[in-house]
Write a structure and sequence with these properties.
The chain has about 325 residues and is an alpha/beta fold. It folds into three domains: about 5-160, P-loop containing nucleotide triphosphate hydrolases (Rossmann fold, 3-Layer(aba) Sandwich); about 165-225, Helicase, Ruva Protein, domain 3; about 230-315, Zinc Finger, Delta Prime, domain 3 (Up-down Bundle). Helix content is about 55%, strand content about 10%. α9 packs parallel to α11 and α12 crosses α14 (about 265-275). The longest helix has 19 residues, at about 280-300. It is elongated and about 70 Å long. The mean pLDDT is about 85.
C-alpha cells in the first residue's frame, strides 16, 4: 500500500500546481503571472472555508521554489502558537534571512490569519515592511474584517468565492474516475447542495459515500452527510402552508428520527427551501421573518422540538 492511499481525499487529491485548482480562474491567472515574473506583492486571501486559499498558496510556493521549497517556504497554521512572541521570534528570524534558490525572496504563509491576536498583527505589519526585499507574505482569512487595516493596505487582496456547481462537479469527476466510482447525476447535485461550494466538504462527503458503496446516489449522499432530502423538507413546509399541521408534524418526526438532525440543521434547510416555493412574495417574506425569529430562539437555548413545532404552527397561520 502506497503512503498516499491512507490519506484523506482532501490531501490525497490536493492540486499539485495552479493549473489543477478548481475555479478561482481570475486569481489563478494572476498567481501564474507572479510565478512567471518571479515577483509578487504581499497577498491577503479572503473567503469561506474549502474554496482553495491554502491550495493556491501551496501550489504557488511549489511552482516558485521547486526542489528548494524546504528552505524558502514557511507555513504557520492557526493550530500553531500565534501570539506576539512567535511574530517577533520565528517569523522575524525567517523573514530577514536571504532566500536560497532561483526566486529572489522567501515566502511566509500564515493560514487562518484572522486567528492572529491583535498584538501579533501590529508586530507583523512592521516585519512585512522592513523585510520586503527578501520576504513575501501570504495571509489567508475567512473574515478579512478581522485583519487590521494596516496589514490589509500592505497586501493585494484576493477574494475567493464558493465554487459553482459545474466547477465542483468537474473536480469530483476526476476523483470518481481515479477511484473507480459511479455517481448518478442527482448525486453530484446532492453533494453540491450539502457542500455549498466547499470543495473540502464535497470530497469528505464523497469519501464517506465510497466507504459504503461504489455506486453512489442522492439518497446515500444525504444519509452520509446527515442532511434531509430537500423534497422531504419541502413537503413538510407545503403541508404546513396548506393548514395540515398534523401531517407537517409527522414529517418533522420523520426528519428528526431518520436523519438525526439538530434543530438548527432543520431550520437551515427550511430556510433554503422557502425561496423555491411557488407562493406570493409577501408570504415568502413573512416566512423568512418567522424563520429568523425561531433561529434566534434556538441560538438562545430554547427547546428544539417545541420551537420547531411552534414554527410549523406559525406557518399554518400565515395568510
Amino acid at each position: 500500500m502506497e503512503k498516499t492511499d491512507i490519506l484523506p481525499w482532501t490531501e490525497k487529491y490536493r492540486p499539485k500546481n495552479l493549473d489543477e485548482v478548481a475555479g478561482q480562474i481570475e486569481t489563478v491567472t494572476s498567481l501564474k503571472a507572479f510565478v512567471n515574473a518571479k515577483n509578487m506583492p504581499n497577498m491577503l486571501f479572503a473567503g469561506p472555508p474549502g474554496v482553495g486559499k491554502t491550495t493556491c498558496s501551496l501550489a504557488l510556493a511549489k511552482e516558485l521554489f521547486g526542489d528548494s521549497i524546504a528552505g524558502n517556504f514557511l507555513e504557520l497554521n492557526a493550530s500553531d502558537e500565534r501570539g506576539i512572541d512567535v511574530v517577533r521570534g520565528r517569523i522575524k528570524d525567517f523573514a530577514r534571512s536571504v532566500s536560497l534558490g532561483e526566486a529572489p525572496f522567501k515566502l511566509i504563509f500564515l493560514d487562518e490569519g484572522d486567528a492572529l491576536t491583535s498584538d501579533a498583527q501590529q508586530a507583523l505589519r512592521r516585519t512585512m515592511e522592513s523585510n520586503s526585499r527578501v520576504t513575501r507574505f501570504i495571509i489567508s482569512a475567512n473574515y478579512s474584517s478581522k485583519i487590521i487595516e494596516p496589514i490589509q493596505s500592505r497586501c493585494a487582496v484576493f477574494r475567493f468565492m464558493p465554487l459553482q456547481e459545474e466547477e465542483t462537479k468537474s473536480a469530483l469527476e476526476k476523483v470518481v474516475k481515479l477511484e473507480g466510482l459511479k455517481l448518478d447525476e442527482s448525486a453530484y447535485s446532492a453533494i453540491y447542495y450539502v457542500s455549498e461550494g466547499d470543495m473540502r466538504k464535497a470530497l469528505n462527503i464523497l469519501q464517506g459515500c465510497a466507504m459504503h458503496s461504489k455506486n453512489i446516489n442522492e439518497k446515500l449522499v444525504h444519509k452520509i452527510s446527515s442532511r434531509a432530502m430537500p423534497k422531504e423538507v419541502r413537503t413538510m413546509i407545503e403541508c404546513a402552508l396548506k393548514g395540515n399541521f398534523n401531517d407537517a408534524r409527522t414529517n418533522l418526526d420523520t426528519l428528526i428520527i431518520s436523519y438525526g438532525l439538530s434543530g438548527e440543521d432543520i431550520l437551515t434547510q427550511i430556510y433554503r427551501e422557502v425561496p423555491k416555493l411557488e407562493i406570493e412574495e409577501k408570504k415568502r417574506m413573512k416566512l423568512i421573518e418567522i424563520i429568523g425569529e425561531y433561529n434566534f430562539r434556538l441560538v438562545q437555548g430554547a427547546n428544539e422540538r417545541i420551537q420547531l413545532e411552534a414554527l410549523l404552527a406559525q406557518f399554518v397561520s400565515v395568510e
